[in-house]
Amino acid sequence: MEAQRLLSGFCSTPPIQNTKTQVFVKFPLSSSSASFAQSQKWVSFKACPSISQSALSGKVFQCRNSRERIEFLASDKEDLRSGIRRKKLAVFVSGGGSNFRSIQEACLRGSIHGDIVVVVTSKQDCGGADYARDKGLPVILFPKTKLEADGISPADLVATLRRFEVDFVLLAGYLKLIPAELIQAYPRSILNIHPSLLPAFGGKGNYGMKVHKAVIASGSRYTGPTIHFVDEHYDTGRILAQRVVPVLAKDTAEELAARVLREEHRIYVEVITALCEDRVIWREDGVPIIRSKENPNEYS
Ligand code: GRF
């Protein structure tokens, strides 16, 4: 029993630091030999991030160096992230990498409970790859093409991501089709962002400024980013989130693209935050939805 093993460690060693969340423990004070902060009938200590609080809730454990039995009580007010393992992320880029940067910044400031551990690019010298190298992140070239002869094979890509222990793959302006090997290796774990309200203006060849030009030419009054899980085809995987952006009467494609991109940066960070906090739920009909952090009974 993993939780019991970890808890035994707590009882004989100082509590693990580096987390704001406290776990409350029923503990008879008279016989307490532990160095926990005490308050009336309760003692509390910092929770190890690798223990799931829901797994501990209501359970009774025995300390290794004590005959005391302690009971975990999960409070409603506790941070949902307590006990949730920090996720390892791979970001795929082919262009400027502004979405990649905003994800990286959100990881560094702590809004996303995860870290980018590797970047994959189809263009060795694109802005996103340059930025990654600048930040000291490993950059992998995929796929192998005439122009990019050093690219690795799909099997090596999967093996590399496994070696980095990647939990989630995030496509951020990556222009190549994702190989079936990767989709099978990472089920329900690969996200893409597209700059239109899918299923409109998606599919092969619909990328970059072409999307925004087509939106304006169609007379659509609304557009906006879509985040979807990735399947074997371009832009057809299950939709997870969308945001509506107005198309103004005098918009150029560049103006519209800039307005949509600002919204992309916001929504992608919000969705990845939810993903890393295990708040993406799959409805019975196969549609993924996001549980609200503030109100766990609400979904979007
Ligand atoms: C974004 O518009 C995204 O929706 C699309 O490619 C563009 C990438 O931009 N998939 P950036 O490289 O993140 O700046």
TrEMBL record:
Q: Which domain of life is it from?
A: Eukaryota
Molecular-function GO term, any one = phosphoribosylglycinamide formyltransferase activity
Keyword entries, A-Z: Chloroplast, Plastid, Purine biosynthesis, Transferase, Transit peptide
Reactions catalysed according to its record: N(1)-(5-phospho-beta-D-ribosyl)glycinamide + (6R)-10-formyltetrahydrofolate = N(2)-formyl-N(1)-(5-phospho-beta-D-ribosyl)glycinamide + (6S)-5,6,7,8-tetrahydrofolate + H(+)
UniProt-listed GO biological process terms: 'de novo' IMP biosynthetic process
Has keyword Plastid?
yes
Q: Name the family the entry cites.
A: Belongs to the GART family.
What name does the UniProt record give this protein?
Answer: Phosphoribosylglycinamide formyltransferase, chloroplastic
Its source organism is Prunus persica (Peach)
